[in-house]
Design brief:
600 residues; elongated; DNA-binding; Serine Threonine Protein Phosphatase 5, Tetratricopeptide repeat; 33 helices; mainly alpha; 72% helix
DNA sequence: ATAGGGTTAG
């Protein structure tokens, strides 16, 4: 017997739309069918049902064939299933389940749990749905363990409506079922829902454990008030004594890193005694996301010295660090290291390699990786397009984009940002306008701030400053500092004093401590021979205590401070450098500079 | 005996 081996996309989609109704329908149908089947062989009814559902009919037959008494083999069969699943042989466990079913044996609750778990590991929704129907038919639908497993299955398959339905239909809940539903929302990008459910859970008598905290902390990374939520949860974690649990700490470190609070992430990480691979991976990723590439590499080296084996996750982050530090030598070494374990076939690693090579200026090597990679997704293509765009090879970037479309992949917003960047660097104004329109009409995407920023830049660079200004007015977002900076730069190139003055004013509102707008404005005045105004700008800079140009910017100071603050002090000049940085760092904090997130 | 957790790329 074959249960749901055919997983056609069409079936999955149609099941996705109405699965909950579907299995209740199966439920009532099966009881009706059961009777029919016993009295007269009205197989036609059953077959009609089967073809409607697109599911293998022999299963439907056996579903409706009623219960058979326990077999002597049952004990043996069922322990085989659980053994196989325990060892991670999920496919084999399911096969074994099939044969159990063929023998007409009614599985126990325990077996259903194991089998549902195997389905969720294999993402076999189709089989899972049929098993759910069978569970209802047998009358196990009130079992706590089975329901938790069902919640887990639907969550893994991104069917949160069904997961939630199962959850709320349960008569009673425990830690596991609450954690399952919270995890489901967290993992499918509904962090807000996960937090709401967590608060709901706190109102019951069931207490969260370290599994719950792990999930809910990872959920709050997606929240707007992430830092506040995380800090609150952190307090609970300490109070409840979970602060040495590796998973809890990993999600905390990740959350703090993504909020830009790298110092807090570091201190949490350092106070953990036993560090496993995932925790170290999280810290390395945190360093590289916060542009602390040297620290990321240092931890990577230490990890290998400590005997922890790097994984694909590790390589992704470490290559990212190499890219932002533009250290080709190290990048190549890591590349050859990961080739030995076959990690270069991983699409995440391949994207990082492409990114690293293009940032290091070896775009042809990046292309080699791209061509070698078999499993190509959207991100991989975008990495390569971005690489070409930033290397000034606009034509190649656009050609690649056309290939992407020809291959039937659907570009997303980030991909269009890459394409528009290519147009900017190549000076293709008309093409840029064309692609923006295509994005809206042909691909049904709504442009966001990043794409508008590209367009403002494109118009500005090509001297259409009025048009750029109009776009900034028309777009449904407030222009951010990036846009004003680009616009101000274009004003300088095209000697637009009035527009430049306004841009500088707006920019200073957004970034009152940045000297850059003053400098550019002074240059604009100087180009126009307006020496009085130049003097005035310089005076304003002096009054505000601006740092002279040529020194480090606040961002650089913050970066360097963190690099050195966690360094050892064995280097002879370290104390001196550290003292200087420390002074600058506090000066910066007093000036009101706060860290900005990477992708805002 | 059976169910739940953390990390990666553009």
């Amino acid at each position: 017997m074959v249960i749901g081996s055919a997983r056609t996309p069409r079936l999955v989609i149609s099941l996705k739309q109405r699965s909950f109704t579907f299995y209740y329908w199966v439920h009532s149908f099966n009881f009706a069918a059961h009777e029919l089947f016993d009295k007269s062989p009205q197989r036609d009814e059953i077959h009609r049902f089967s073809s409607f559902c697109d599911i293998n009919s022999s299963f439907q037959n056996s579903l409706c064939s009623g219960f058979v008494n326990y077999d002597n083999d049952q004990q043996g069969n069922e322990s085989t299933i659980s053994e196989l699943a325990k060892q991670g042989h999920f496919q084999e466990a399911l096969k074994s389940f099939h044969s159990l079913h063929d023998l007409g044996i009614k599985p126990t609750k325990f077996t259903f749990c194991t089998v549902l778990n195997s389905c969720s590991k294999l993402l076999d929704l189709c089989l899972g749905l049929q098993i759910h129907a069978r569970i209802i038919q047998i009358g196990y639908e009130d079992n706590l363990f089975i329901n938790s497993a069902l919640v887990g299955l639907y969550s893994k398959c991104d069917m949160m409506v069904d997961a939630r339905n199962v959850f709320y239909r349960m008569r009673n809940h425990d830690q596991v079922s609450w954690t399952s539903i919270i995890t489901g929302f967290a993992q499918n990008g509904h962090g807000k829902e996960a937090l709401v459910l967590f608060k709901e859970m706190l109102e019951t008598s069931i207490r969260p454990d370290c599994f719950t905290f792990t999930s809910v902390i990872s959920a709050c990374t997606q929240s707007e008030a992430a830092l506040e939520e995380a800090a609150l949860l952190h307090v609970h974690v300490i109070k409840l004594g979970f602060e040495q649990n590796s998973s809890v700490i990993s999600s905390l470190v990740d959350c703090y890193s993504k909020c830009g609070k790298i110092d807090r992430a570091i201190s949490v990480f350092n106070s953990t005694l036993e560090k496993d691979t995932i925790l170290v991976n999280t810290m390395i990723a945190g360093y590289s996301q916060n542009l602390l590439g040297e620290e990321a590499l240092r931890l990577f080296t230490k990890m290998r010295k400590d005997g922890l084996c790097p994984t694909d996750y590790t390589f992704g982050s470490v290559l990212n660090a190499c890219g932002s530090l533009t250290i080709l030598q190290q990048g190549r070494q890591i590349h050859s290291l990961l080739t030995k374990t076959g990690s270069d076939r991983n699409v995440f690693v391949a994207s990082s390699l492409i990114d690293m090579y293009s940032k290091c200026g070896t775009i042809d090597e990046a292309r080699k990786i791209f061509d070698q990679t078999i499993q190509r997704n959207n991100v991989l293509w975008t990495s390569m397009i971005t690489g070409y765009a930033q290397s000034g090879r606009g034509e190649d970037a656009l050609e690649l984009f056309e290939n992407l479309v020809r291959e039937g992949l659907k570009p997303d917003r980030i991909c269009f940002t890459a394409v528009l960047t290519a147009c900017n660097h190549g000076g293709f104004l008309d093409k840029g306008i064309e692609y923006l329109n295509k994005m809206k009409t042909y691909f049904g995407l709504v442009p966001e701030l990043d794409q508008f920023a590209c367009m403002v830049d494109l118009y500005g660079r090509n001297g259409h400053l009025r048009k750029a200004r109009e776009l900034m007015e028309e777009m449904p977002f407030e222009p951010n500092a990036v846009i004003w900076t680009s616009f101000l730069g274009s004003c300088r190139v095209h000697r637009e004093v009035e527009l430049g003055r306004e841009a500088a004013k707006q920019l200073l509102k957004l970034e009152p401590n940045s000297p850059a707008p003053y400098v550019t404005l002074a240059n604009i005045y100087a180009d126009a021979g307006m020496w009085e105004e130049v003097k005035e700008v310089r005076k304003m800079m002096k009054e505000k205590g601006m740092r002279k140009s040529g020194g480090w910017s606040w961002v650089e100071i913050e970066q360097k401070f963190h690099v050195f603050s966690v360094n050892d002090t064995s280097h002879p000049q370290m104390q001196e450098i550290y003292a200087e940085l420390y002074k600058l760092y506090f000066e910066m904090r007093e000036a009101g500079y706060t860290h900005k997130r990477k992708y805002v």
